[in-house]
Design goal:
Glutathione S-transferase Yfyf (Class Pi), Chain A, domain 2; 78% helix; mainly alpha
Length: 216
């Protein structure tokens, strides 16, 4: 894509956008791998706490509780209460650690998706000044009208490049939730897909105007 744009529009800012998209795409595999892999330190801590939980529930009562002299339900609850209290706090801490890891993965995914969303807006910014109406022979330009030197064919190719890059942005963003089905990340990817689809529709409307102009 970058080479195609460079061959046809070597001085175009759109070529720089394509280079940036290429760099982001190259980093995608590494970023997804970081999201996919669990944190070794957190996993070690979680397994340590789970082992401690097993010790509290299974082993400790055998040594420290006088279960043979329990004469009432109240005494049973009194013997069980310290163990359950420890188990509750360890379980809560384990869940907290797991939420930290999921939050870290979510943050990485959202940062990458936000970068792609920003790039889609940059593409839209570049195509905004490309107006097929200005190809009309008797167009009325003002003193501050931007210079438009593209032919109808060049303008059509420019719009095609924009829609292709928007499609690529949508596809790259979807990779981040392929192995990470997080609801927040999925919502962010859906927003990028809706954004790129909406921007592409605007560009295709311009392409339709170009086609009508060519036919006339």
């Amino acid at each position: 894509m970058e080479k195609r744009i460079g061959e046809r529009f070597p001085e175009s800012h759109l070529r720089g956008v394509a280079k940036e998209l290429m760099e982001i795409a190259k980093e995608t595999d590494h970023r997804i791998q970081l999201i996919r892999e669990p944190s070794t330190s957190l996993q070690l801590l979680v397994w340590t706490l789970l082992s401690a939980l097993c010790v509290i529930i299974i082993i400790l009562p055998m040594f420290f509780s006088d279960w043979g002299h329990v004469n009432s339900v109240l005494e049973f609850i009194q013997n069980l209460e310290p163990m359950l209290g420890c188990a509750f706090f360890i379980t809560a801490f384990v869940l907290y650690l797991l939420s930290i890891e999921r939050g870290r993965k979510r943050s990485r995914a959202l940062d990458a998706i936000h970068e792609l969303r920003s790039l889609a807006h940059v593409i839209d910014m570049h195509q905004l000044t490309k107006d097929p109406v200005m190809l009309i022979p008797d167009k009325q330009e003002t003193e501050n009208s931007p210079r438009r030197t593209m032919t109808s064919f060049e303008l059509s190719r420019y719009f095609d490049y924009c829609t292709e890059m928007l499609s690529l942005i949508s596809k790259v963003s979807a990779l981040y939730i392929e192995d990470f089905p997080d609801s927040v990340a999925i919502t962010a990817v859906d927003e990028v897909e809706n954004l790129t689809s909406g921007l592409s529709r605007k560009i295709w409307q311009k392409i339709a105007l170009l086609d009508r102009h060519s036919e006339s």
